Amino acid sequence: MAAACAKATPAEPELPKPATIKDIMDSMVDPSGDFLFESVAQIADEKGIREKAPETDEEWKDVRTRAIILLEAPNLLVMPGRKVAQPGEKSKNPAVELSPEQIQPLIDGDRLSFIRRAGVLQDAAAAALKAADAKDKNALFDALQKIDHACENCHLQYWYPNDERARAAAAAEAARMKAAGEQK
Predict the structure, then answer these.
(1) pLDDT, position 129
(2) Is residue 145 situated within a structural domain?
(3) Shortest CA distance to 137 belongs to which of 33, 42, 73, 29?
(4) Which pTM was predicted?
């Protein structure tokens, strides 16, 4: 009887998804990642080795803003029904990259793995956000390595899974990171 009197919770409305995964990558993920990767670096040149890192409050604020974008973009990427690309869009490098028509079934066929990979990017972006809030260039550098790893693992699965050079580079990087972790 009580159940009959309870009000049913209305279903949440379906949100429109006019942007594709490619659109989100091109407009949010890539520019924010590029900004972050350029914000902290070791530069070796004729002047020797020097470090580049945010110094002012404004520079750290810009890093924080880009980290937030990378933290939230995966939520958009994994929305149910999100398409990889607009109909008719082609890969920029078809000799290496799969076409959107090939990528879509890979994502749709194992959404849990795609969502998990997006979560790895979010975890790495959260570390970058924490580093920005602490104004810690070393923690930011470490977070950027995690962001790079998250992106590359997803791309190797969905975007260019047949690229043997990329697979070999990823395996070498994983071995290097494992060896570095064991030395700590």
Answers:
(1) 98
(2) yes
(3) 42
(4) 0.85
